[in-house]
């Protein structure tokens, strides 16, 4: 059916410089790894805390790590500051 892998790739998708769609391949791979690490951490925390809504949102929405970082540093950190049954109070 296909003689080589070049038949599977649209003409012009990969250039001689190793870029796809105008982005260097190494940048694309770095962004994927960055996103994968933050998504994994955020999903781990959301699953462990039994936060189903956050888990689904983090699983479905891809923001290259931005939403995951917001979740980890603001939502999880804010909730860790609370003690059992105690409201978090702002110091004056």
Description of the molecule:
With 92 residues, the protein is mainly alpha-helical. 52% of the residues lie in helices and 4% in strands. It has three helices and two strands, in the order E-E-H-H-H. The chain has a two-stranded antiparallel ribbon with strand order 1-2. A hairpin with a 2-residue loop joins strand 1 and strand 2 (23-24). Helix 1 (25-48) packs antiparallel against helix 2. Mean pLDDT is 75; it is low at 87-92.
Rounded to the nearest angstrom, the radius of gyration is: 20 Å
The ordered string of helix (H) and strand (E) elements is EEHHH
The order of strands across the largest sheet is 1-2
* Oligomer classification: single chain
Which parts are unreliable, with pLDDT below 50 for 5 consecutive residues or more?
Answer: 87-92
Beta-strand content estimate: under 5%
Major β-sheet annotation: 2 strands, antiparallel
The coarse overall form would be: elongated
Distance between the first and last residues' Cα: 72 Å
Q: Give the overall average pLDDT.
A: 75
Protein structure class: mainly alpha
Given the structure, what is the number of helices?
3
How many strands appear in the DSSP assignment? 2
Helix proportion range: 40-55%
């Amino acid at each position: 059916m296909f003689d080589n892998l070049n038949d599977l790739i649209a003409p012009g998708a990969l250039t001689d410089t190793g870029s796809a769609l105008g982005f260097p391949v190494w940048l694309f791979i770095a962004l994927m790894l960055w996103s994968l690490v933050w998504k994994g951490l955020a999903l781990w925390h959301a699953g462990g805390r039994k936060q189903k809504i956050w888990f689904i949102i983090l699983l479905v929405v891809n923001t290259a790590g931005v939403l995951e970082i917001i979740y980890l540093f603001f939502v999880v950190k804010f909730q860790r500051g609370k003690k059992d049954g105690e409201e978090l109070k702002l110091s004056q």
